[in-house]
Design brief:
Order of helices and strands: HHHH
Number of helices: 4
Number of strands: 0
Distance between the termini: 38 Å
Shape: elongated
Structural class: mainly alpha
Radius of gyration: 23 Å
Largest sheet: none
Helix content: over 70%
């Protein structure tokens, strides 16, 4: 039989470790989110200033700003809900592929097989978005699911 004071000490030690661990994980989480958000803002401002120095913005530059917008929205949603919006990652990939395709067409001025690969990849990502949206609508995360916990 264990003495009562050792059981109490053990429970208090576990509660302290759990609280300290949660504090450290949350602190790192918020620090990392602010660092990522700051980096996105910094990069977007630098890209915008580069456009103003050039005196014009190409379609690739505008799509780059959309990528920064989507990344910023993703960080904001993750900050508020503690859930990673997978759809935003797919949107970023679709926008990046569109940007790549536009640059490729502008550079070569003729259709190539890469154009078909890029558009096929965008189609697959669009279908993936449809599957993710359908899955999240049909099978939402509940409070008992790991994804539904805050």
């Amino acid at each position: 039989m264990k003495p009562k004071w050792t059981v109490t000490l053990n429970r208090n030690l576990h509660e302290f470790a759990d609280g300290a661990g949660t504090l450290l994980v949350d602190a790192f989480h918020y620090l990392a989110l602010f660092a990522i958000g700051g980096t996105i803002v910094w990069s977007a401002v630098a890209a915008f200033l580069n456009m103003t120095v050039k005196g014009l913005a190409s379609i690739e530059d505008i799509l780059l700003l959309f990528i920064y917008l989507e990344l910023g929205a993703m960080v904001g949603i993750y900050f508020k809900t503690n859930h990673m919006p997978v759809r935003f990652l797919i949107y970023v990939a679709m926008t990046a592929l569109t940007r790549l395709l536009i640059g490729d067409v502008q550079a070569h001025h003729m259709p190539q097989l890469n154009l078909l690969y890029g558009t096929g990849a965008i189609l697959i990502l669009a279908l993936a978005t449809l599957v993710v949206r359908y899955g999240s609508n049909r099978f939402p995360s509940g409070p008992g699911d790991e994804a539904g916990r805050k």
